[in-house]
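Hi Prof. W.,

I finally got the 3-deoxy-D-manno-octulosonate 8-phosphate phosphatase (KDO 8-P phosphatase) prediction working! I wasn't sure whether to trim anything, so I left the full sequence exactly as given:
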Amino acid sequence: MDLTEKAKRVKMLLMDVDGVLTDGKLYYTQEGEEIKVFNVRDGLGIKLIQKAGIKTGVISGRNSKPLINRLRELGVEEIYLGHNEKLPAFEEILKKNHLSCEEIAFIGDDYVDIPILRRVGFPIVVCDAPKVVKETALYITKAKGGEGAVREAIEYLLELRGELKEMLKYYFE
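And this is what came out:
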């Protein structure tokens, strides 16, 4: 099956957070409060793919209030935080949404993401991931995690599906 056919099967985009939606660095205030930095371009990308009818979700080992706030602000449907072992959360998402592995695109960046990347129909990895993680991907972003990699991956998927121009039409009228 070619990339276009694989992309057309995608009904949900799942993402890791640290190193994908963020640059992977951990920031703390003097009081110990965690701070997350997100790229607004990734946020618009998430809105574009949702507009195309593709559900979105995250599975992350970390859990923080800033992260929850950002995900809710973006309307991310499936939020699984504090899951160091990601496969059980992945299986739960599949079951809850009546989806097969082939209908999932997943964006990861590190060793803990490999079990999911190996199962999904459209595995995507950010360019600054370790070599062994990149070997699982159908697509490797040019942008680093936290620097627009999610937006790039979304635009790539939508382009393969023949939907990108339609999703961007609003901005060019």
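The chain has a mean pLDDT of 95. Does that look reasonable to you?

Thanks,
D.
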